[in-house]
């Protein structure tokens, strides 16, 4: 084909609106801004005292009353988890912030046990209500937090004091739940 | 406007821990609209890199590539381009028709004509409708190549890039491809063909670019056009006697052709154009020489590959 | 956003037996658990896993198989390719979870367990948020690593962060612990929407983290695909 008398093509950069590789600058800017915002928020958050964080943290576990808990555990053939705790106790706050406010942990907990919170109010009110008192005495609770895993209407139970971290606590709960099952449980000194 | 413009393109690859490899070194080329260009060269020469730059897959380190005046990765350019890769890779679960319809849609072609366009494309490359319904995982190599060509032709692209198009294709398929490429050329489509099949390249392309070690070593013109010189091989019978006093060089000179050599039973001449060829042959026959066969010389391109080859 | 790419992506996923089996298990398993425990909580995190099954290798496998070149020979912009994959995986996951939650709700109601509309909405939205952000993370990883390497990087990163975080917690290396949490939160993004459905403070930090992860993932993937050279055959 004979060459046409066309003008030589301009060697300037071709317009890029129709490029297949156009960078969406607005997205890049937004991503950068949000990243900065996120890091700033995390830094601010990490500087706040744990108690504040815990106070704000939403407790995701659906705590039953002792009576409800016992009944439900018997019906569903699941062990009860008693959380002996107090408002003024820092490890209890950490446990709430790290374990009970975590959706995945809360979910796992619900599957393994029936959670019952036993709140000690002796410092605030002078003494506890009867059911709290009797539970504390039955399970020999003398420190907070204390977790007790017990099978309804059976003697054996597992207990631990102090906060072992989220993972450790979950593992302990799981193992204890296995240990107190009837037929599998080994008699344990309380 | 040139169809494809490559100006002083250099492209270097960093190969792992080793030396950087200069795949293209100051390559310049221009392809006119409607031309059929062949790209040949040894392995590792940079042909695939050159093709990649023309297709917008690779960005040259320096220099310029323009397709129809625009950057090769512009969406408009992509819409006017068809591409048949060397190794066609498809999702095995698709049928041939699925695959064509998928590319028809990706090319932005109207959904209303999708079914007919894809059926027509299948027919054009010699695939049966029943074969179109098969999963491509069951396709033979030849069928895959045909499907690949069909896909490249969707939407009537103005430019077509074919990488080893007839590799693995049976002879009937080769004839069909040749016909299709010829039709496309007549329709004014610009073709760029990368191939090791030198005979086909010579037959189909009007110009051939020989790439070696990242540079364009030469650009050969192959197609017998009115203004293109070529070499003729004239075979003379060994049984019939020659008239006395005949000089091949003299006859050639008298018609404006150039006599190269006589290696029995062939004589080689260079002619300027078709008219010159006719004059030469007329003169040879008038001189009483027993011409039994005339053919354009083959194997020109092979010579480029031999050391010291070229002319 | 390219509808052809979205549909073909989903069709292609549907032809992978491994993916379909995994999705069936992730659909049926938590559903059964929800019905058995009479609670919707087993469905709380299912989108994170579902989206992984759908989206793993979304870009990386196209690169290793060589399909990507032919795709980009067409007038397909690279950003739309990325967005299409992201949307396809996210929307499909959200749709599946929606069906799952609705089925579970119906089953629960039939078995007499209480199901609140707010709870249903919250679980679906939280899952959707996990799907969209999780898909963005995987797409970003997949744009840098071929084949199914994105899955490998995800788990490697997550477990490293967990271990490092535990060590840092014991050793009180606060900055390292923060970094570890940053990484694991980014790799498995989630969001708590209780504040939307019943008060409570708006967790700005968590919202910032989630939206940052989403935008960052998409931005990285698009940037990478825009500036990437398709590795052509070594000629």
Describe this protein's structure:
The complex is a heterotrimer of chains A (190), B (311) and C (235). Chain A is an alpha+beta fold. Helix content of chain A is 47%, strand content 13%. Chain A has a domain at 55-179: Glutaredoxin (3-Layer(aba) Sandwich). Chain A has helices at 25-47, 50-56, 66-76, 90-100, 103-112, 122-125, 130-138, 166-179; strands at 80-86, 114-120, 146-150, 157-161. The model of chain A is unreliable at 1-15 (pLDDT under 50). The model of chain B has no long low-confidence stretch (mean pLDDT 86). With 235 residues, chain C is mainly alpha-helical. Chain C has one domain (3-148, 190-227). In chain C, 75% of the residues lie in helices and 0% in strands. In chain C, helix 2 packs parallel to helix 6 and helix 7 (117-144) runs parallel beside helix 10 (204-227). The two termini of chain C are 34 Å apart.
In terms of topology, how is this protein built?
The complex is a heterotrimer of chains A (190), B (311) and C (235).
Chain A: H1 25-47, H2 50-56, H3 66-76, E1 80-86, H4 90-100, H5 103-112, E2 114-120, H6 122-125, H7 130-138, E3 146-150, E4 157-161, H8 166-179
Helix pairs in contact in A: 2-4, 5-8
Chain B: E1 4-14, E2 20-31, E3 36-40, H1 47-55, E4 62-67, H2 75-79, E5 81-84, H3 96-106, H4 114-124, H5 129-132, H6 141-153, E6 159-163, H7 171-186, E7 190-194, H8 198-204, E8 207-212, E9 215-221, E10 230-236, H9 248-255, E11 258-263, E12 266-271, H10 274-286, E13 291-296, H11 300-305
Chain C: H1 3-14, H2 17-37, H3 46-55, H4 60-65, H5 67-72, H6 78-110, H7 117-144, H8 149-171, H9 174-187, H10 204-227
